[in-house]
Amino acid sequence: MKKLSVLFAAVMMFSAVGVAKAQKLASLDYQEMLSMMPDAKKVSTDLDTFSKTKEAEIKKMGEAFQAEVQKYQAEGAKLTEAQRSAKEAELQKTQQNLQQIATTAQNDLLKKRDTMLKPVIDRLNNAIEKVAKANGWDFIIDSSALIYKNGVDATPLIKKELGL
Questions:
Q1: Which candidate, 95, 27, 101, 41, places its Cα nearest to that of 64?
Q2: 10 lies in some domain
Q3: Mean pLDDT score, 38-64
Q4: For residues 157 and 124, what is the distance between their CA atoms, to the nearest angstrom?
Q5: If you compute the radius of gyration of the chain from its CA atoms, what whole number of angstroms results?
Q6: CA-to-CA distance for 116 and 43, rounded, in angstroms?
Q7: How many domains is the chain built from?
Q8: HSE on the CB side for 126, CA within 13 Å?
Q9: pLDDT at residue 137 tops 90
Q10: What is the mean pLDDT of the chain?
């Protein structure tokens, strides 16, 4: 029994040595790297243009709605009860439509951003993977998540890989 315990302890020590192999790490500020990429800058510019266009359309509709509300408030006393109820229902429906349009525009912007950024993110991820393999790194960690970093910064090598 004692020999079995010694044998078990020896096996555990040797297997622990294999598990405790030093991991090779590097860090990278992912968002900073993404913002340096010309493709990402173009996506940002295109999204700003799209967003401002949608914003202007919604603002114009909102101003038209406000004009209708003011007109109703000015002339509401002259209307019959049935006309007032109909106009209030119409205004309420218009307001709900405006809210729906704004929500749809926001969702469209998010979908467009995801679609446009996907190839840029894929390119960055491929460069990170290529540099990690070339340098024998097991992990490249986003440095924005680190409190203290005193190790290899992969940024220059990934910049070079991306041609930045």
A1: 95
A2: no
A3: 95
A4: 12
A5: 30
A6: 6
A7: 1
A8: 7
A9: yes
A10: 86
pLDDT reported for residue 22: 67
DSSP character at residue 153: B
* Mean pLDDT of the region 52-69: 95
In sequence order, the 6+-apart residues with CB closer than 8 A to the CB of 37 are 120, 123, 124, 162, 164
Separation between Cα atoms, residue 66 and residue 91, nearest integer Å: 10
Biggest CA–CA distance in the chain, Å, is: 104
3-class state of residue 24 by DSSP: coil
Does residue 141 or residue 76 have the better pLDDT? 141
- Give the domain extent around 55: 24-162
With beta carbons less than 8 A apart as the criterion, state whether 137 and 24 touch: yes
Query: Would you say residue 12 lies in a domain?
Result: no
The residue written with tokens 């709605």 in the block is 65
